[in-house]
Amino acid sequence: MDLEEIISRTRKHIKGGISLITNGFFLESRAKSLREEGLDKINISPHSLHKNKFGIITGNEGGVLSVEKGIGATLEA
What we know:
By secondary structure, the protein is mainly alpha-helical. It has one domain (3-76). The chain is 48% helix and 10% strand. The chain has four helices and two strands. The chain has helices at 3-11, 31-36, 51-58, 63-76; strands at residues 19-22, 41-44. The chain has a two-stranded parallel sheet. The model has no long low-confidence stretch (mean pLDDT 92).
């Protein structure tokens, strides 16, 4: 079961808000579908927005760009 399905199933049983906390790494490709399935709020908490620090923490220096794109996708959704 993926996150969109969990949100969709949860939405059928509650009227209140559904929120998510994420580091934002995979958010670019999922922001719209998460919103469509019923996600109301999102808290993006990246390891860092500094390329070098992000790389040191995660071992993926280019990953900060994915986080930035995820933030943009969330704002558009």
